[in-house]
Amino acid sequence: MNRSTKRFMKEQDGGIAVSVWIASLAMMIGIILSAYLHPAWLLLAAGVSWALVACIPLPYRKYVACYSLISILAGLFFYGYENLHSSEVKPLAEREQSIWIEGVIDSPVRRDGDVARFFVTITSWGENQPNENEHHSLEKVALRVKLASFQEATQIEQWRRGSVIVAPIRLSLPPSARNPHAFDYASYLYWQGVHVTGETSYQAVDMTPAFSLWASFQEWQDSGARRIESLFADPETAGYMKSLLLGLGQEVNPELAAMYSNLGLSHILAISGLHVTLVSSMFMWCLERIGIRRRLAFVVTILFLIGYVFLVGASASAIRSGLMGSVGLLCQVFGKKLDGKDVWAGALILMLMVNPYQLWHVGFQLSFAVTLGLIIFVPYSLHVFVRVPVWIRTLLAVTLSAQLVSFPFLIYHFHLFSPVSWLVNLVVTPILSAIALPFGYVAVVLDFVHPFLAVIPVWMSTAMLKWIHLPLFAIEKMRLPFTYWPHPSWWWLALYTCFLGVLPISWRLGYHRKRDIMLTFVIFLSFIVAARQPFSGVEEVRITFLDVGQGDSIVVEIGDQKVYLMDAGGTMRFPAAEPWMEKRDPFEVGKDVVLPFLMARGIEKIDRVIMTHGDLDHIGGFKSLVPHFSFGEVLVNGTAPSKLEGEIVQLFRQEGVPILTGLPGQSWSDGPGIEWKWLHPGESTFSGNDASVVLQLTAFNKTVLFTGDIEKDGESQLVQNGLTSVDVLKVAHHGSNTSSTEELLAITAPKAAVISAGVKNRYGHPSSEVLHRLKKSGSAVYRTDIHGAITLVITPAGLYWQAQILDT
């Protein structure tokens, strides 16, 4: 057989591989288009495909027709899947109505403190009593069960997937994101096939255990978790190993999980190809040592992998890894060789056929994207540093390829990518893979034989984790620049995807000389610079009134030069009555609202912090923010600080941040046309709300008045000191009737007013009297309890508003 014939046959084989690969891409395109476009796109696609088939050369017609048909069928499948997962009880949830349900537990039951959460697939429901006017359906609901005692907490942890429950539940709609680029719970549940949430109490639920395959695997998982707890005395290490070995990510200490996330190491704690490769290799090795023939060992290992995937929770990454690993082993059994992209595409098609909504799951996206990146880029990367030993080249190729592909996903979903992530992964991942992971599995297996045999692997993995976590925590505390990334634009994501797609094509075309590689590196750096959005909002002042519930937090961005943070909200927390009621990672507005917003804006330094006064709902969130940013200075009202204010001031002083105050009449400029004035308080006897810092910002001839929680007496002092009309008024004290007097409104005559108040807050803010006075003064009113976060953008051309939630 001559060389040209071999080359032709090789190209034909490549064509077969590419067809499956392109088919998977066509399927994804069809699903995505159906998710965001009107169904009429199907007719348009059919017409365009017919026109292309009629115009293009004959050899390519069948490919265009085939892939177009796949996209159209995928779109039709998505519409059908969406119709099957529509909600019958959503109209009742909009009215927050209570119903009776009978259903099957459809997820692991996760308890956190005095609340347990899980999914229930409703089989029947009624608006009155059970068995009365029943409606039969199959609809998934996110259920929240309130617990009243430690006994209930212990018992509910024994509930298993597949068990039948009957209960009265109060329906509601899941909340959507109330701040820009925040976690959208409603969207998250939608892509889980859930449209409504329900709430009930443990006493009201009648649970009947039922056998299910899921329940058996969960029992084994729980048994393994208990064994790990007995092996590892340190609770933090035990929680880490439960996540590493069994996929129980919720068991990881929150601070440790945050550190892994900040340094780009979260993938280590997720069951992935690394785990599947290691576990299957260890299992195969054991089978061969006891004399089982190699082909039979492959078959047994495939069955073992299926069980392993279920044992560790069957996450998207675990299923993908199990599928690809099983296909690889099958190829070994039959002596076949498949292209890696073929195997990847087959796994993708199969998983999307089961559930197309998975395409919007973050874990699914990262698992498939990174795996594809390794398949495509690692072989090319190995040819770059040819003089470096192969094992180093391989390690570098795997690390850099994974980082290259995961980068857009991380900055889009989490706005987080550490500049040392590639180096940390290069060093830490091999160590954890070679020691902690295998020694953890070995310890668990040896413990079945005799606990003494597990002592050495337990000691080695524990010592190694403690040794490696110390420098990792130190690196995290360094506050490295370019760690928080602004939310990327759609066009940047599209261009970066095209860049990744062109790389292997250009390599195959011969563009891999040294100058070509240097040019590619320069283009990549250009994408990194563009991701920082250096020219975004240069000539604008952006003021965001965050929705922090019943509290205040305002972020003022002066172009790309300076950032002001005026208050940071606060969360009222009461100590748990009993230890079992403590939550692992309780909600805190600074950590869970303000910090994610600042990260999404790519903010890493706050030039001025303004603590208007010492109330918890204004400054409590600063405690969570101090460790994450560098600060220029802190402005306070100059009065005797409250206990909380004193603690926060001390945190700033420990960071070397100067603490300053001001006097009426003082002013400073942040650039041409941008001036701040300190209006209040001065040298007076004001205290409490009336001692709130009041600032006036003039930007491009537009004036904004920030009033904190100032009340009637403080407003009177402001008027006496002299006020002018303003364009925007931040309404004082959340719209309380003790503020926003007619005297103040008559002088300031605001064209627009912003009220920061919590949804259905217990104070009744904003008061009807204040709303009436604002209406009388002709002010347009924006409210965080109605509109979510409110953004005011001031430019030399004027100003405009953006609301997170539009009026309906």
From TrEMBL:
The keyword Iron-sulfur does not apply. CDD domains: ComA-like_MBL-fold. The chain crosses the membrane at residues 12-33, 39-56, 63-81, 263-284, 296-319, 359-378, 390-414, 420-444, 451-470, 490-510, 517-535. SMART domains: Lactamase_B. It holds the Pfam family Competence. InterPro entries: ComA-like_MBL, ComEC_N, Competence_ComEC/Rec2, Competence_DNA_uptake, DUF4131, Metallo-B-lactamas, RibonucZ/Hydroxyglut_hydro. It is found in: Cell membrane. Its main location: membrane. It catalyses: 3',5'-cyclic CMP + H2O = CMP + H(+); 3',5'-cyclic UMP + H2O = UMP + H(+). Keywords: Cell membrane, Membrane, Transmembrane, Transmembrane helix. The keyword Ligase does not apply. Residues 550-759 form the Metallo-beta-lactamase domain. It is a multi-pass membrane protein. It comes from the Bacteria. Counteracts the endogenous Pycsar antiviral defense system. Phosphodiesterase that enables metal-dependent hydrolysis of host cyclic nucleotide Pycsar defense signals such as cCMP and cUMP. NCBIfam families: ComEC_N-term, ComEC_Rec2. This is DNA internalization-related competence protein ComEC/Rec2. It comes from Brevibacillus formosus.
